[in-house]
Design a protein that fits this description.
The protein is α/β, with parallel strands linked by helices. Helix content is 32%, strand content 24%. The strands form 2 sheets. A 6-stranded mixed sheet has the order 6-7-8-3-9-10, sandwiched between helices. Helix 3 packs parallel to helix 5 and helix 5 packs parallel to helix 6. The protein binds adenosine-5'-triphosphate (ATP) and magnesium ion.
C-alpha cells in the first residue's frame, strides 16, 4: 500500500551541520502491516515518519500510496489518509475543548461540514459506544474538557481520534513513551486493536524492544538513516531482545529491554 523508493533526506545541506537523516531507503508496506520501528537516537526513525506524512520535503526518491505518487503532496492533504500520534499527550487533543468536541473535529476532519456542523445526537451515541470500547470510563465524561484527563487517557483519546476518520496509514512516534507502564500497556493494547481495522496499516516507533517484538507483524531496525533489518514471520517469531542486541550491536541508553 505504501511504497518508498530511494528516499533521501539531508538536513542543513552545505552547512557545517549537514546530516544525512534518511539514506536512500527502499521500503514497502503491505496492506494491514503493523510494523514496529526501533533504532538508536538519531537513527532517522522520526524523520522517516515525518517524510511520509509530508512534514519535510524529501531531497530524492518517491513516496507512493495505493498507487498514487504523493511525494510532492503537502502535509495537510496527506493528513486526510494519514493519522498520527506523538509522544507528548498534550499534543494530540485540544486542551480547552470537551472530549466530544475533540472527537467531533477528528470525525469531521475530512468533510466539508467541519466544526460548524456541531454534533448531533446520533453522532454522540456513536462516540459514546466507541469510547466505551476504550474501557476507561470516558463515555461518561464526554462533556468534560480534555485537560482533565490523565496522560494515558489523553493518549487513548488521541489514538481514537487518529483512527476515527478511517485513515489508511497510522503513524505512531513513541506514543507510549511518556506514560507509566500500566497506561502504556493499555494504550498499546488499544493500538493493537485499532491496527486490525480493515484497510489500516500501522508504523510504530518504540524504544521498548520487547514491545517492538511483541506487537505487530513486522519489525525494522534503523541505523544511520538506513533500514538495516526487516523481519517478519518465523524469523521474527524466533527473534529475542538478546539476539537483537547481539546481532545488531545496539547501543542506546534509552533502549528498554
Ligand atoms: N528538523 C531538523 N533539522 C535538522 N536536523 C534534524 C531535524 N530533524 C532531525 N534532524 C537530525 O536528523 C537525524 C535523525 O533524527 P531523527 O529525529 O529522525 O532520529 P530518531 O531516530 O527519531 O531519534 P530519537 O530516537 O532520538 O527520537 C538526527 O541527527 C537529527 O539531529
Ligand atoms: Mg524520534
Amino acid at each position: 500500500m505504501l511504497k518508498i523508493e530511494k528516499m533521501h533526506k539531508t538536513f542543513g545541506k552545505g552547512t557545517i551541520n549537514e546530516k544525512v537523516a534518511i539514506d536512500n531507503i527502499d521500503f514497502n508496506l503491505r496492506p494491514g502491516d503493523f510494523v514496529t520501528i526501533i533504532g538508536s537516537n538519531g537513527a532517522g526513525k522520526s524523520t522517516l515518519l515525518n517524510c511520509i506524512s509530508g512534514v519535510f520535503p524529501i531531497d530524492k526518491g518517491k513516496i507512493i500510496l495505493d498507487g498514487k505518487n504523493i511525494t510532492r503532496q503537502p502535509e495537510f492533504k496527506r493528513s486526510k489518509f494519514i493519522g498520527r500520534v506523538f509522544q507528548d499527550p498534550l499534543k494530540g487533543t485540544a486542551f480547552d475543548m470537551t472530549i466530544e468536541e475533540n472527537l467531533s473535529i477528528a470525525y469531521n476532519k475530512n468533510s466539508f461540514r467541519g466544526l460548524q456542523s456541531g454534533i448531533n445526537r446520533k453522532q454522540k451515541e456513536v462516540f459514546r459506544e466507541k469510547l466505551a470500547l476504550l474501557g476507561m470510563g470516558l463515555e461518561d465524561r464526554m462533556k468534560q474538557k480534555a485537560k482533565l484527563l490523565s496522560g494515558g487517557q489523553r493518549q487513548a483519546l488521541t489514538l481514537f481520534m487518529a483512527v476515527i476518520s478511517k485513515p489508511k496509514l497510522l503513524l505512531l512516534d513513541e506514543h507510549t513513551a511518556a506514560l507509566d507502564p500500566g497506561a502504556a500497556k493499555k494504550v498499546l493494547e488499544l493500538t493493537n486493536r485499532f491496527s486490525k481495522e480493515p484497510g489500516l496499516s500501522t508504523m510504530m516507533i518504540t524504544h521498548n524492544m520487547k514491545d517492538a517484538l511483541q506487537y505487530g507483524n513486522r519489525t525494522i531496525l534503523m541505523k544511520e538513516g538506513k533500514i538495516v533489518m526487516d523481519i517478519s514471520g518465523d524469523e521474527r517469531a524466533d527473534m529475542t531482545v538478546e539476539k537483537l542486541i547481539e546481532q545488531f550491536e545496539i547501543d542506546n541508553d534509552r533502549m528498554l529491554l
